[in-house]
Amino acid sequence: MCGIISVVDRSGAVMDGARIRDALSMMDERGSGEGAGYAAYGVYPEFADCYAIHVFFDNIVETKAPVDALLETWGTIVHDEEIPTYEQAHLRKIHTPWRYFFRPDPTLMTGTPSPEDDIVTYLVMKVNTTMRGALIYSSGKNIGVFKAAGWPEDVADFYRIQDYKGYIWLAHNRYPTNTRGWWGGAHPFNLLDWSVVHNGEITSYGTNRRYIESYGYKCTMFTDTEVVAYLVDLLARKHGLDEELVVRALAPPFWDEIDRMPEKERELNRAIRLAYGSAMMNGPFAIVVANHDGIAGFTDRIKLRPLVAAEEGDRMYISSEEAAIRRIAPELDRVWMPRAGEPVIGRVR
Amino acid sequence: MAIGSVPLRYKITIDPDRCMECGRCIENCPYGTFRKEGDRIVAVSRNCTACHRCIAMCPRDAITLVEHPVDYRSHPLWTPEAREAIYNQARTGGIILAGMGNAMPLPSIFDRLLLDACQVTNPSIDPLREPMELRTYLGKKPSKLAFRRTEAGDVELETKIAPNLMIETPIMIGHMSYGAISLNAQLALARAAHTAGTFMGTGEGGMHPDLYPYQKRLIVQVASGRFGVDIDYLNRGAAIEIKIGQGAKPGIGGHLPGEKVGPDVSRTRMIPEGSDAISPAPHHDIYSIEDLAQLVRSLKEATEWQKPVFVKIAAVHNAAAVAAGIARSGADAVVVDGFRGGTGAAPKVFRDHVGIPIEAAISAVDQKLRSQGIRNEVSVIASGGIRDAADVTKAIALGADAVYIGTAALVAMGCRVCGTCYRGLCPWGIATQRPDLVARLDPVREGEHVANLIHAWTMEVSELMGAAGINAIESLRGNRDRLRGYMLDEGMLQVLDVKTVGA
Ligand code: SF4
Ligand code: SF4
Hints:
heterodimer, A: alpha+beta, seven-stranded antiparallel beta sheet, five-stranded antiparallel beta sheet, 10 helices, 29% helix, globular, B: alpha/beta, eight-stranded parallel β-barrel, three-stranded mixed beta sheet, binds iron/sulfur cluster
């Protein structure tokens, strides 16, 4: 199950979260009240060049000080505050969500072309694997993830999502079947600039996890979606593949199709499967990945999960259901069903 | 004090009401168990090795074979085997030889690993209706690709991919040399490899000209004895395998007795007729990873960098570190052969007591290569005691790219795992060079049997993958989440990195 909806405004114009909330609630049937979440790009214009680090604290008395200290070791906390929340009747507040606007000190990480990103990645892994009671679940610049265990509308109201404005929105309504419903397990999953929402179950998780962990990532959230964010980070940021090639690596064409391609294309696709076979994802899934440039949606190779795309002017939508999209934009210019493994890409101009 | 004879191991009886004295059992038993006495056939059970040939060939189902009940005083430590071994060695003063794989009653780890299947939340995939991809490429893979966008927006691949072997099944036939097995047996395996679209190893015995038509499907082996190795041999193979060790006898070389080196074997191995073919325990030009790297390079250079080079080692406790060294030596694949691997002849003490199970070795090798970030750059092939499609699937889930089968292929050709291969009298025409016995094996029919076996297992692997919701073998490789340990201890679960059942 699970319902996903995402929208990008290709002109970069911002939208508030009110209608995303309604669209996600439209798909309540796809969830179980155990997790929902929203990611928005462009929400922190006043701190646009800081990394916005969102942390769930079990309690701030014992766990916040060590996280502060760790961040201060690696850079400067420009500003930090509790993320405002509003009590909801059906949502039990288990964690305290906190946000830091953080500027890493690039001189502290040598031998890498992207020291700032690498510092932040390191901090995410460090906190999530070693600091009990603290979980970093959002770490990109000018983006924020807002999630909790609850129904879409309750989570939205808990964070008052309508107060945030972004040019890309990702939202997810969860029906956990493999792992327990907990705050960290709710989607979107995020690392740096990458956010992921996912409907499905990745049967290749064991392979993907062991692959990505051999590159130093550590999977700590007990869910298969986390690995997607890391895979995308590895392939796109570290290995420099563009969106289409990333999707080609994660949901490649069948050998039958590859065999029928013209030679150059065949060699390219063969090379991708050879080099990135362990990154390829299997099982039923529909995924939308975002970064500050746009969104990309794709499904597994035999499309065992639904995915529909639509356009209306500058806005492009990807969702599990057309009805959800029409909740935001009743009149659409174009609606289509992408084929299995075929990426739908919406880029900000 | 006289030791006397050891008791019978097997007892052969002929049912006089069924036997029609056709004498076929006499013809079929190369160990001389039967003879005619008047108008009766009598059996000297002491000669029997339980190879089942006479039983399979008796037209009247008149022969019964039972393990002879042991009448030693029972003792938990001093088993009949232990005592008999002492009697035999006290008498002969020699090393005890044995054939086939480890015969100790050790539990199988494979049997204590259970595979997973999907229910409801995740649809299983039906391989009859949906594509299921078992295609496997063996060889070096780049850890990352480099691309360039042309002005027209086309993607240009800049990374050059090293030569790989391509198979549509992860099952290959391991190395069994001409000498250890008969030419007919090799021909049958080569035909099977050809039909099944997979590869077969020549073993260290060179390549007989009769195998040339199948050379595209042959992996040639370079062992310490360098038998049969010249540039023509190397060029004929689809890939080259350097054999450092073998699962059934880690740490020792090979020995083909001179009496088995007839004109044909002598030509193929490039050694004088009647001379013992001894492959030393070490390669005398390899005493370090650097030396190995040189050999890998020389072989590549000699074959113009057109062929993948594999390195085979026996599964020993340090196999993971050795495999990492091999990966860095420039080799394209590392073959790990577990302690259940078969052999033509090995000292029994080695076969039964040296080495480690393939399950643990593969897991450790995969883990080590990953921790060093080089798993992707080298293929891993598991061998040594793969008995069925479940073992294949589990080996891949533990981290292998593909498997070699040996004994299973022989069983498909008739071998009854009697373990007497070292006597060179294999009644099935497999582990023998005696022309009348070799002639018993029909390469065409047995080739079909082996190809059928590979085909059947391949279908079973795809069914198991489909049940687990996986439609490409890449997603099974190293996917230990699809395995659970059943009645395995904590330490073993850790080595295998699998969760226990119910978790
Ligand atoms: S050795 Fe084989 S052929 Fe001979 S009696 Fe025993 S089972 Fe029969
Ligand atoms: S190959 Fe022949 S001798 Fe060896 S175990 Fe099989 S049947 Fe016995």
